[in-house]
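Render this sequence as a predicted structure.
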Amino acid sequence: MHAADAFGDLDLDAVTAASRRVTGYPEGLADAAQAFPPGPWCYTGAIENHPDLIDRIAALRPLAGNSGDSLRQVRDPFALARRLRAAGLLYPETFTTPEDIPADGSFLRKPIASAGGRGISVWRQPVGFDSEAGKSVGHVWQRRIAGLPMAAVFGLSGGEQRLLGLSQQLIGEPSCRATEFAYCGSVQSPLKLVREEVLDQCTRLGSTLATECGLAGIVAVDMVLDARFGLTVIEVNPRPSSSMELVERTTGESMLATHLAAFGWPSPRPPNRHPSASDVWSKAVLFAAVSLTVDERLLDGLLKLSAGWTAADGWPAIADIPRSGERVRAGGPLLTVFASADTPHASRERLEQRLAALKTVTG
């Protein structure tokens, strides 16, 4: 397997035959695709915001993923809202202009091409704001939904759906040094503990994505769970996502193999990791407190912590490890850390302990 991304982290080399760090993201991915050996390709990250690029690369090599046409449908908030509401599912009120929208913090201004919560702000209309002039083709105004941020991971194939996992999303957590709306991790919600009405809504959601939206493969959905156990869909990410890692660690099922199989590409399955039914996994993204350059001392400290935790967990405990000499800006993602325990609460506690230990190394 070959991989290309914008970071070129150290641990990517360990799981690929070769990796390539691209410049000029996202267009540089097309150059990387041409340099790799023949074979199918799939995308992750926020590349769904660039359907034209996906179609261009798909013209050069087989795409094991959802096409540009499919992406344009589910990334259009109004087209998505129509399909979801027809299935009896909830989607927030959304507008293309702030005209007549209250400026009391009940609405958010969001980029349509969003990723990880970047660019989202609470809408508080400035004095003298011209609503007509304030229209933006790149943004929408969306009602803010109160509740618990969640994510669902589906496996879709041939119009059929399978709910693979649910997790609570960590958003704007101070322990991660994350900004207000930034995604910074997930805590698994074991399906056996999830209420039946929530699972029913997930089933209808997965079926809608598979049949009405024509999606396939691993698909993730950001949602909010309210006090009455109603799910409001916030965003569909029609590709493998960060929360799928928690599913893989619990079940031992290769999410990549499942994704490729949905598009007719068999994949060698990795060795069984001996998953435990009692494991509840969590993960967190730690952001840099100040701008720093990764040196050998810092890298050695990270690798020592990772080795000890990995031996205890049976899975890599730290991911997205920057290379020595890498410059990380203040507020930029530094690394990802994982933890597991018997319950979501205990898993979250262990995750916080590991974050604290990492801060003693990274500053």
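Summary. The chain has a mean pLDDT of 92. The radius of gyration is 20 Å.
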